[in-house]
Amino acid sequence: MTRTIAARAALLAVLALLVLAGCASGRAGTDPVDEEEGFVSTAMVVTFGDGEVLFVDQDTESPYYPTLPEGTPELAAGNIVRVTGNGIMLESYPGQYPGITKVEVVEEGTPADAEKYDELVAQIWQPKDPSEPPLASLEYATDLAVVTLLPTTCGYTWTYEQDGNEQTVAVDTLAPTDYAAGELPDAMLKEPAEVTVSSDVEVTGIEVMRWSEDALDVEGEKVEVAGLTFAAEPDYRYAILATFDAGEVTYAFTA
Q1: How far, in Å, are 40, 41, 53, 87 from residue 32 at the CA level?
Q2: With a threshold of 0.90, does the pTM exceed it?
Q3: Which of 82, 104, 124 is the last residue of a domain?
Q4: Do 208 and 232 fall within a single domain?
Q5: Is the peptide bond before 94 cis (omega within 30 degrees of 0)?
Q6: 77, 123, 179, 210: least surrounded by Cβ within 10 Å?
Q7: How is 24-90 classified by DSSP, letter by letter?
């Protein structure tokens, strides 16, 4: 099970760095138009899972996850869309495009048109095992980048339904303070940063504890949280107890 979770985490990408607007690698298949409109590209809509949307750039064949702006029309697999935005991609695989300002359907297409990307979808997505806990991500900003870090999943209790029956699984692993230096994902902070927790399942609340990396054997210090956000500081180890409707999961990272 741990190996499966790690594989899923790898597919979701460990770190997303914001490419500066002048970098050519950050603009895949975009054609500059006037400054007021932005950068325009054409993509095919591919859907998978529970209706998750993936765009495939029609010039480069590169897949990316779009952040759809308000007013986006209802999309269906096979649609060809005209995408307007700032042209800045987040470096991950598939890429992420948060700077989209407008999406227009220019050709209806059919779901059969999108079937040519079935092999691509199979490489980046697998049906989730319902017994596995949710993956969490930590988002924060530095002077140079917007960063997404995947913390280590520690112990959890998770309830799910299988064949009409409710099942509960409880897993104990190493405590966050028992990991050796270098075994946890490192945010590599140079100064304090506001960290926001998100997940592929809705998080209902978090509690955060921290320890100095030089004093992991002492009692942890509770960290104040505001919703799903808290302040992290360099040289501390953090444990996040996240609660969900179906259970609770502990995540850990070092800053």
Answers
A1: 6, 9, 25, 9
A2: no
A3: 124
A4: yes
A5: yes
A6: 123
A7: GGG-SS-EE--TTT-EEEEEEEEEETTTEEEEEETTT--EEEE-PPTTPPP--TT-EEEEEE--PPE
Residues 164 and 143 in one domain: yes
What tens-digit pLDDT sequence spans the chain (255 residues)? 433 444 344 333 333 333 323 333 344 444 444 445 689 999 999 998 878 899 999 999 999 999 899 999 999 999 999 999 988 887 778 888 988 999 999 999 999 999 999 999 988 887 778 899 998 999 998 877 778 888 999 999 999 988 889 999 999 999 999 999 889 999 999 999 999 999 889 999 999 999 999 999 999 999 999 999 999 999 999 999 999 999 999 999 999
Using only the alpha carbons of the chain, give its radius of gyration.
Answer: 20
**What are the residues facing 55 on neighbouring strands?**
45, 64
Q: Which CATH number fits the domain that encloses residue 239?
A: 2.60.40
Asked whether residue 160 falls in the same domain as residue 191, the answer is yes
Give me the residue label for tokens 């790898």: 10
Task: Go through the chain and tell me how many residues it has.
Answer: 255
